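Appendix B. Raw example, untouched.
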Amino acid sequence: MSSQAIEFPVFSLEFIVDPYPTIALLRERDPVHHLDDMRAWFVTRHEDVKRLLSDTDALTSDPRAWEGHVAPRGRHVRWYLDHTLMALDRDDHYRLRRLVAATGTEPNGPGWPARTARVPRTSSSA
């Protein structure tokens, strides 16, 4: 891990539209990056992700089993962490990935940034 902090605005429109420059920087300087606000890890290297998904004897996706686990504050963050594809157990993760792959859908395919930019932003005060 680099001693210099990397700014990682995971929910910014800039990251959503084009995450690749930030991911490349993280992969180079901090490949297993801790998101303090979310109390989560962002893993950028294929081999690391592969081990996380396959070594079920040594690793678990259940954060309650992690040393020092403190449940995150905020119901939206808790829901997000509990319901992302990466939070699922291995068998459910693979099952859902196969379903998505079978559709032939490429989330970052042609026109994706333009479609994403058109998603209306909502205000927390609305």
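End of appendix B.
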